[in-house]
Specification:
The protein is α+β, with helices and mostly antiparallel strands. The protein contains 4 helices and 6 strands, in the order ααββαββββα. It has a single domain, classed as Nuclear Transport Factor 2, Chain: A (Roll), CATH 3.10.450. The model has no long low-confidence stretch (mean pLDDT 94).
């Protein structure tokens, strides 16, 4: 069970990110990011980010949404939240359903960092791509 930190800007941004992802609100999600933000999901090289440098700016983050978030439905269970300084680290369990018969489970830690205006400047999701790919038979 996580504690609510209603006055912490990075916690608020993380909650708004979760809300927009689970409700499939792309425009709402993109509005949470600063113009020069970077999304690394997962952190490092993967088929979602072959160079491992993240998705930069609104255009890059928008393309990431289309590739990784828009397909299927996402259920997000927040287990713990740790706001500190300009960041908030969330421990979560995510289920992504592609169809009633096909879903993947992801245990992850997501670190959100915000600027003075409360806009996300960095989103880093730590999860094992290969472990998730095995669920899909890959």
């Amino acid at each position: 069970m996580h504690v609510i930190h209603a006055d912490h800007p990075a916690y608020i941004a993380s909650q708004n990110s979760i809300k927009n992802v689970t409700s499939k609100n792309k425009d709402g999600w993109l509005s949470l990011f600063a113009d020069d933000a970077v999304v690394e999901d997962p952190v490092g090289k993967s088929p979602l980010d072959p160079e491992g440098k993240g998705h930069h700016g609104r255009d890059g983050i928008s393309a990431f949404w289309d590739m990784a978030i828009a397909i299927g439905d996402i259920e997000f269970k927040l287990l713990q939240s740790h706001p500190c300084g300009d960041s908030c680290a969330n421990v979560a369990h995510l289920t992504k359903r592609f169809s009633p018969e096909m879903a993947i489970e992801i245990d992850l830690v997501i670190v959100y960092r915000v600027n003075e205006a409360g806009k996300i400047i960095s989103l880093k999701a730590y999860w094992e791509y290969d472990k998730v790919a095995r669920q899909l038979g890959g």
